[in-house]
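Hi Y.,

Following your request, here is the sequence exactly as I used it, all 167 residues.
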Amino acid sequence: MHVKTMEGLAGASMSMKLMNTPMRVYKEAERRGDTGVMERAMGYAGDFADKTEDYQKATEKGMKEDAKEAREKAKTEQENAIQKRREQREEMEKRIAESRNGDTDTVRISESGKAALDEKTDSVQTGADNGISAEETADAIKMESAIYTETGEKAESEPGANFSVSV
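Below is the corresponding structure, written out as tokens. Let me know if you'd prefer a different format.
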């Protein structure tokens, strides 16, 4: 909360409380019929009412400043969020470009390998027996994966070694 707002609220509250005293004096003087005291008491009450209005204006001014600061802060936060998203997007685009331009390996399956794969999947799909059980066919399709070195030779993997690939 802005300082002006706090000052205005506190001042208005105090002025309203202080106005109770001259009002009480006014009511007592009215019962006694003392018009001079009544006039003075109303003058004091009017002064406190004027001070209350001044404090109310200060409160309104402080609230406007609070709202202005809040709008500016929200705008700044929004601009920061937009800039952060742009940076993230640019970073992601760089990663994608690097992955496209990077050294990648390609896998080519020979025609005989494709034919063998098609035969095995067709026999599994049609339920053909051909003297081979469905489990053996499924096992044949799920061949052991292999890792190859730069020279093209099959590299032996260590037993129990776990590999993870991040994309």
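Strands lie at 147-148, 154-155.

Thanks again,
Q.
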